[in-house]
Write a structure and sequence with these properties.
- The chain has helices at 3-8, 30-33, and strands at 23-24, 63-78, 83-101, 104-126, 129-153, 157-178, 185-208, 213-222, 225-227, 229-236, 240-246, 250-252, 255-264, 268-277, 294-303, 317-326, 336-348, 355-367, 374-389.
- With 396 residues, the protein is an all-beta fold.
- The chain has a 14-stranded antiparallel beta barrel with strand order 2-3-4-5-6-7-8-13-14-15-16-17-18-19.
- Strand 4 (104-126) and strand 5 form a beta hairpin.
- The two termini are 40 Å apart.
């Protein structure tokens, strides 16, 4: 029911979302997001973690999880001379997870894949005529997934897979408006619409250090996928000319991920992730060489002072993290670096099982050359993780 609303909202105003599929979304949910976006090596029965489908089977056979998150974002931009700020917000994701066997669990959900939203322009002079050229874009891609995880060996080795369906429409347009007695304009727009299913895989292994502490190692893989796409082009001056093109290649890259986490039960989590995406070999609208390979490193942790004490503040889950990544997109052959710092907390509800998660993320987009736009934003994510006993037969 919310799919149309999610697609209609604008989650970014970044001029870099003009390139490729736009700004790639964060796939981690509330708890992992406040720990720098980690999740590949994270194995927790308290939260849904689509970053590694092998994690689903860590839940017990009497638990049902539902997670819903929304974001608000304040962004500011500068090119060294001009400045601009914007406020955005959106429903970010929703998912559920439940067991179907004591060794098998499934998860179903929807989350964004990319965001597109920008509008900028300038005045120009050509052959004595003054005109304003404006560039505008909107839309993005969404991802619907259904995943299954199997406990292969004693809750220590698990494997999983997600069947994903990626869909959505991205529209880019440029308008040239001439200043004259009879004002004329030329509008050019291009949109592509995709819909394609693909798989991604995960594995996790838990090494026990003691009765209360363990190390978890995780790995993920997603193959390169050719998206089924249609491209719509239109040019309008005095006459509208339209064209629809099929068969152009739009691909998403091969992705590898490695992660590790240390956990002391109900006390401490420390985790780190590395992800590599082969964007450099991807074709976009049948063209290659438009992108560069992307790497991301994330680290984070969670600390609980005393889960079983009376003071409420002692039972909070305090979280902190950070990440570093390079952009997959290129603007005139140049990209940018992205650095982030996160902080947040999980607030336990009266049942002691459900949580309200709050995270704050500061991101700095640092371009490789001085005349590109520098971007910073502060994002707040608010999510509710509903955790309840299901499948429980009461006896009297």
């Amino acid at each position: 029911m919310l799919a149309a609303e999610v697609s209609a909202q604008n989650s970014t105003n970044s001029p870099y979302s003009r390139y490729g599929y736009g700004e790639i979304a964060n796939r981690s949910f509330g708890a992992g997001r406040s720990m720098g976006g980690i999740g590949i090596g994270l194995r927790s029965s308290k939260q849904i973690n689509p970053l590694n489908p092998a994690s689903y089977s860590c839940m017990d056979s009497l638990t049902f999880l539902f997670d819903f998150g929304a974001t608000g974002q304040y962004s500011w931009y500068t090119d060294g001379v001009n400045k601009q700020s914007d406020i955005n917000g959106n429903v970010e994701y929703m998912a559920m997870q439940f067991p179907i066997h004591r060794k098998i669990a499934v998860s179903i959900g929807m989350l964004p894949f990319s965001h597109v939203g920008y509008k900028y322009g300038e005045s120009k002079v050509s052959n004595g005529l003054t005109y304003v050229e404006t560039f505008e874009g909107s839309g993005g891609l969404n991802q619907l997934y259904g995943g299954v995880s199997i406990d292969v060996w004693k809750k220590r080795l698990s494997v999983g897979a997600n069947l994903n369906y990626i869909f959505g429409t991205v529209t880019h347009s440029s308008t040239s408006t001439f200043s004259s007695e009879n004002s004329t304009y030329i509008l050019s727009s291009k949109a592509f619409k995709v819909g394609k299913a693909y798989l991604d895989y995960g594995v996790q292994y838990v090494h026990l250090l003691s009765k209360t502490s363990s190390l978890t190692f995780g790995a993920t893989f997603a193959p390169k996928t050719n998206l089924s796409a249609r491209t719509y082009e239109a040019v309008q001056s005095t006459v509208i000319q339209t064209d629809t093109v099929r068969g152009l290649k739009y691909e998403i890259p091969t992705t590898y991920g490695l992660g590790v986490s240390y956990e002391k039960t109900d006390k401490l989590i420390i985790a780190a992730d590395y992800q590599y995406q082969g964007w450099g070999s991807v074709k976009f609208s049948d063209k290659g060489g438009l992108f560069q390979d992307r790497s991301k490193v994330a680290i984070g942790g969670e600390y609980i002072p005393n889960l079983y004490s009376q003071p409420y503040l002692n039972r909070l889950r305090y979280r902190i993290g950070g990440s570093y990544a390079n952009s997959y997109m290129l603007s005139n052959g140049n990209g940018y670096k992205e650095l982030s710092a996160t902080i947040g907390a999980g607030f336990p509800m009266s049942d002691g099982r459900s949580y309200i998660n709050v995270s704050f993320e500061y991101v700095k987009v640092k371009p490789e050359v001085y005349n590109m736009v520098s971007e910073s934003y502060l994002k707040m994510t608010l999510s509710y993780t509903f955790n309840e006993y299901w499948f429980f037969k009461k006896k009297f």
